[in-house]
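Predict structure. Chain length: 125.
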Amino acid sequence: MATRALILFAHGARDARWAVPFERLREMLRGQLPGVAVELAFLELMPPRLPELVQTLAAQGCDDVTLVPVFFGQGGHVLRDLPPMVEALRQTYPAVRFRIASAVGEAESVLQAIAAYCVASLDTQ
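Prediction complete.
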């Protein structure tokens, strides 16, 4: 098992089809990051939830976790819900290093990619 993990952290939904793009992203990253455990965890409504996933990773010897909120912006879930969850994980797993990236939608490169997609959509009609 990898000692490093990259966890894509998403909201979750009742409809399993909602997770398909996140699963595709996870698979893309797995191909780009050999030796890193790339996983997907959800805040609610879908398994695995973040605490259960971290428990599994820690039991497998993972000691370095980077969380990437796959949210468009730094809203309530990223600002209010995620920090206490991670703090509880730090208390439970003191030997594991946790880092939290900004929400993906805050990155200039992501916004540029979305803008390019929007512009290209004008040509498809």
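Summary: The longest helix spans residues 76-92.
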